[in-house]
Please model this.
Amino acid sequence: MMIKINARESVEIVSGVFVSVISDSGSKYYSWDELTEKQVECFSGMSDEIKKVYKNYKDCITI
Model:
C-alpha cells in the first residue's frame, strides 16, 4: 500500500515484508524483521486505518 502523505512525503507499507518512508531528504527502507514491535503496531495500524477510510469512501471515487 502506497500512502501519499503530501507533495513531499509518502509511505509504502507491505505488511510482513517492508516499509519504505520517502521524503525530500531521501528514502529509508525498513525490512519488517528489523522494525521494533512498536513500529510494527504503528505501520500496521496506519495501513488498517487507510483501508477503513477507503472502504467507507470508495463508492464516491470515480476513476
